[in-house]
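Retro notes, item 3 of 5
We never archived the inputs for the magnesium ion complex last cycle. Fixing that now. Sequence and ligand:
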Amino acid sequence: MLTLTRDDVRLGCRAADWKAALAQAAEALVEAGRVSPEYGEGLLAREAQSSTYLGNGIAIPHGTPESRRYVRSTGVRVLQFPEGVAWHDGSRVSLLVTIAAQSDEHLDILRQLTHVLDREGVARTLASAKNPDDVIATLSRVPEKARLDAETLCLGLPLRDRLELALAAAARLRHIGCVEASFVAAIAGQQPVPLGQGLWLVFAASGVNSPALALATPERRLRDGAGDVAGVFCLAAHGDAHRALLERLDGLLARGDGERLIELSAEQVLSRLSGESAGAETARVRLLNAHGLHARPARELVQVARAQSVAVRVRLLEGHGEAVSATSLTQVLSLGARRGQTLVFSAEGEGASQAVSALVEVVRGGLGEPVTPLTETREESVPRVTAKEPVVAPVADEPLTAVPAAPGLAIAPAYVLRLPEFRYAERADDPARERERLDRALVGARQQLEALVQRTVGGEVSQILSIHAEMLSDPALRDASLEAMGEGASAEASWWRAIDTAARAQESLADRLLAERAADLRDVGRRVLGLLCGVEMPTPPEHPYILVADDVGPSDVARLETAKVRGLVTARGGATSHSAILARALGIAAVVGAGERVLALSSGVELIVDGENGRVVASPSPARRERTERRMVEQESLQRAAHGRRHEEARTQDGHRVEVAANLGNTAHAADAVERGAEGIGLLRTEFVFMAHPQAPDLATQIAEYSEAFDALKGRPLVARTLDVGGDKPLAYWPMPHEENPFLGLRGIRLTLTRPEVLETQLRALLTAAGSRPVRIMFPMVKDIDEFRAGKAIFDRVQAEVKATDVQLGVMIEVPSCALLAPSLAKEADFFSIGTNDLTQYTLAIDRGHPQLSAQSDALHPGVLRLIRFTVEAAHAEGRWVGVCGELGSDPQAIPVLVGLGVDELSVSSRRVPLVKARIRELTLSRARELAELALKQPTAAAVREALEAA
Ligand code: PEP
Ligand code: MG
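Structure as it came back at the time:
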């Protein structure tokens, strides 16, 4: 990528001839510390091979491949010669863009410069520029290209109508980063527009990061009230960039090629959308040139194309899909083709076949450069699991923070699972042989899975393995592989491509559980690949161990004889990842998202895994080891005792009572919460009631839902939070404008206040369902008293009519400003409930779902604790009660601190109620206060945890 600063540009240079200009350019690079002086020879040598003049007064001198050893760091120097320099090929150069590149970066620079070469008058502008910024602006403007490639296609999805397909296509665009959630929400509110031939279009311009066109097709042609459905295009529109794509789509429809799109493979779809008709002659060839399609070979190609009797177009199989004229040097350069990539030539009419063959031949011949065949390079298509950069293993007794995934403690030696690398040739000559190899591997994989299912005790794991066996029998995977083999791909490459395409389609599905099947597909794919490549899967030790892995697939867990696995640590993943779910199913302690450093551990090193507090410690000190062993023994008996006393109140040993309630999303689970000992519902996330319906539930529906919870509670209080959507939680039927930063946008009470009628209906339903039963209502994401008063005004109006008899109106403390303004809020609100999940996110400025940072997002941070203390003091001063309903309330280390800070109620997931009660019973209020003071004094969350553990 060409990123220039003012220092990179020298204006007003003069040179007697081209050699003198080149010498100045070399000197400029030396001065910038990019190259050593010998590089100048390389520039001259390269120029002697052929001119680097591009057109429009620009030349791009760069060294020969041999001179790359003189490059210290990649960079560019731009020299302007206002009077021009006579170049050795007869042209006149006014701008030298001199490149020092350690590898093939000059291709990207070339590609970027092609847009300059196309524009009229640019030579004059560059030659006469008086300010480096003008040169930079002219060179750096990159015309935006809309994306359309294999990744934007989701073909053959098991979906049932146009709307599902539209959403799948939009979700795919979100997955690859082209759009934000608000784009998906905008698409969700649309009816697809018919294009004809069974194709439909949805589009939006809001929430678009970069323009793109996605296509989702169903498994087979559908029919609904509006007509045939063979596919839905989803366009992320941005400026003018998508126009060319729409024109290509138009062309496809004009040729009548839309009808058959549903039957085509991804590659064929891209071909049709690139402008190649079904009747065009096409031929493909892989580029052999060591440094890609740079200026010299590109010129050779263009000359051959110009000599043909028909127009030839060329595209890059791996590119954004657009075919360009093979007779235009700038357009050919704009492909940025590299060695190993595939050029696809196409032509129509008489002489088409000869034309594309001639081009294939000349590319095969090296386009005037000596080339080596590709079979010498074995290419790797499967991402390696090994870390990219050398990472340092944790030192002895160093606690690493991770995401708690499955509760429990374990001590055992580590077994670090490193997935093997699969190396294989991409291409093969004999499709029949490849097909036989694949079929053999499929049979072998099926046998392996059957054996594993037999060996596996435990419903969930064997269920997943059976799903894997079913996946192997999916004819679509085999068919897709056979098709690729027919085109010359090896069995390994075809199989992995089929798996990857299917996995990506799965990932694009809006349903999270279905999307998680993608991991299963890749897992099953690797099993077959292992057999094809003759790669042994790693064998675990005979003794009990803690499994350490980048991320684990279900069959990895099963293969590892789970009886021996005492704990699980993964470098990646969140608490909802499959590995976490499996660990919970198997009842082993697990932490996930521990970071790459754990992968640098050696197998055999002793580890402690604390699945409750989210910690891993390698080579623990004897004291830490002993403490952990003690805790393990204690935990077992504690669990038994806790369950036995779950219906009793939770009081500290000195008689201080703390209420323990349950968090619920589904009102149907209220009875279960009571059975587990909950003294009420401390947080009803009512957005789940809204999300469960295709449109906003009306008054009667809401009354029925809330009544179910009140009935189950039998007089226990219910704390309901009003609708908390917006930001990252869009409601399909409530489209929202695009927001750059949705977590800081229209969320919670801010959003509901824009639709007061929705809030009013919800309040009416809650108060009506409650009647004479205790109901506590709170507003989410409040930032100050004004928002509370605005919500309260609506509440007062409704309550004056409904007259529920046991009501309190409160505020969730989730925004730091709200905590700091608690004294003013406490004067008017009846209670506070602290949402530590969001309060932590906004206090620490860490997105709570961030894949890398979420482990650092620890609510036991002293910054958060100080806000909690301030809130509690302000509330108690006015005689109000305070609950904590975020995850922190069920964190065993945090419970004493929260009790010590004076929190009156803890609301946790139902499953945790007995243990939280038991933890409170262990305390005395004075000890809890000491621990709270200790925590508040610490400088970081890690220090808080360390201090509490040592206390
Ligand atoms: C919180 O933010 O802590 C909370 C309880 O609300 P939610 O997790 O639903 O945002
Ligand atoms: Mg919240």
